[in-house]
């Protein structure tokens, strides 16, 4: 019989996203937990999840989770805002291991905003989700939260078109309404978008704060692993 005090679970951690975007989360997990084994699934054939139905996102999430369970993972990170919004509750009901999801960083965004206006760049599916509305009500009741759908940006990241002219045009199109309403903080509400952060920074200016979700997720994963 194992002594629970000395037992160390060396099983890997499973991480998945609709494509390459979740690597921005994987990067933060690797920084914080360098000795953990990680298995990453990029479901690029079905990207972006933000354009898919709830049923499709749930089905893909279940299939990937089951595949990773066969690899004996000890925790699952849903490194996708859309999959978190549409499938994380279902996965938590079905799986016996910890399931960590992503949520747009509205709470920290509201804390640092000086104008009381924050923007959220996300997929249409994330913006339409009840989870985003609930986050805004709970964590930013006195802050104006402007949600901006960004069709096409996920594809630009998947194609590695991070700083092309047409990519810049899309970013300018999506960020201009936020700046016009005096937003001083922009939340990158999709794991693909941190790969565009340098280009976004050039367009919105250095005085605008950009907030990603990868590091908070890595910290939450660390806390959960310590409890298990």
TrEMBL record:
<protein>
    <recommendedName>
        <fullName>Glutamate racemase</fullName>
        <ecNumber>5.1.1.3</ecNumber>
    </recommendedName>
</protein>
<keyword id="KW-0413">Isomerase</keyword>
<dbReference type="InterPro" id="IPR001920">
    <property type="entry name" value="Asp/Glu_race"/>
</dbReference>
<dbReference type="Pfam" id="PF01177">
    <property type="entry name" value="Asp_Glu_race"/>
</dbReference>
<dbReference type="GO" id="GO:0008360">
    <property type="term" value="P:regulation of cell shape"/>
</dbReference>
<dbReference type="InterPro" id="IPR033134">
    <property type="entry name" value="Asp/Glu_racemase_AS_2"/>
</dbReference>
<keyword id="KW-0573">Peptidoglycan synthesis</keyword>
<dbReference type="GO" id="GO:0071555">
    <property type="term" value="P:cell wall organization"/>
</dbReference>
<dbReference type="GO" id="GO:0009252">
    <property type="term" value="P:peptidoglycan biosynthetic process"/>
</dbReference>
<dbReference type="GO" id="GO:0008881">
    <property type="term" value="F:glutamate racemase activity"/>
</dbReference>
<dbReference type="InterPro" id="IPR004391">
    <property type="entry name" value="Glu_race"/>
</dbReference>
<dbReference type="InterPro" id="IPR015942">
    <property type="entry name" value="Asp/Glu/hydantoin_racemase"/>
</dbReference>
<dbReference type="InterPro" id="IPR018187">
    <property type="entry name" value="Asp/Glu_racemase_AS_1"/>
</dbReference>
<keyword id="KW-0961">Cell wall biogenesis/degradation</keyword>
<keyword id="KW-0133">Cell shape</keyword>
């Amino acid at each position: 019989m194992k002594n629970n005090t000395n037992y160390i679970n060396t099983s890997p951690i499973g991480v998945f996203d609709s494509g390459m975007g979740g690597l921005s989360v994987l990067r933060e997990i690797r920084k914080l937990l360098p000795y953990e084994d990680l298995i990453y699934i990029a479901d690029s054939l079905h990207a972006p999840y933000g354009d898919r139905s709830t049923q499709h996102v749930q089905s893909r999430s279940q299939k990937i989770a089951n595949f990773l369970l066969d690899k004996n993972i000890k925790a699952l990170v849903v490194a996708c805002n859309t999959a978190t919004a549409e499938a994380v509750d279902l996965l938590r009901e079905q799986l016996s291991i910890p399931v960590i999801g992503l949520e747009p960083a509205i709470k920290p965004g509201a804390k640092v905003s000086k104008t009381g206006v924050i923007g959220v760049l996300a997929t249409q599916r994330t913006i339409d989700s009840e989870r985003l509305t609930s986050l805004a009500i709970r964590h930013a009741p006195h802050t104006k939260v402007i949600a901006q759908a960004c069709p096409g940006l996920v594809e630009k990241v998947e194609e590695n078109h991070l700083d092309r002219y047409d990519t810049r045009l899309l970013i300018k199109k999506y960020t201009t309404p936020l700046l016009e309403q005096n937003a001083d903080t922009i939340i990158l509400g999709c794991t693909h978008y941190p790969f565009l952060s340098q280009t976004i920074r050039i367009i919105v200016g250095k005085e605008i704060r950009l907030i990603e979700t990868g590091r908070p997720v890595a910290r939450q994963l660390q806390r959960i692993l310590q409890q298990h």
